[in-house]
Amino acid sequence: MLPPIDEIVSNFEFLDEWDDRHQYLMELGRKLPPLPEEAHSEANRVRGCVSQVWLETQVDRSGPEPRLHFRGDSDAHITKGVVAVLIAFFDGRTAAEAARADALGLFQKLGLSEHLTAQRSNGARAMMDRIRADAEGVAAAA
What we know:
56% helix, SufE family protein, Fe-S_metab-assoc_dom, Sufe protein. Chain: A, two-stranded antiparallel sheet
């Protein structure tokens, strides 16, 4: 099970060396619950990532505002860790909150922006764009 985003941020701040952060990122990826095989679909595939990435968005409409829940997976260890960070950051937010959330700011705070390769950074942006588009679509329909 993934730790809350505040705990992830605290752990990143505690780790001084990029190698330690790199290992922690992969550990977070291993904590992602398994994504069912049927969710590894074209509809859930994130385009713009060099690695294979799947994000499934689920909408909980039981409250006054729709809340988003995410599941995800990747075939690459580092990228799977990035998926885990994004899920921890966005999961459980209302659609409006998720549409406004500053995931790029989070990545800068964690030092990921400067340490991920250009390809992985582009993939992370593609994931953020996908989540934001899903959130905006749900918010507009609410």
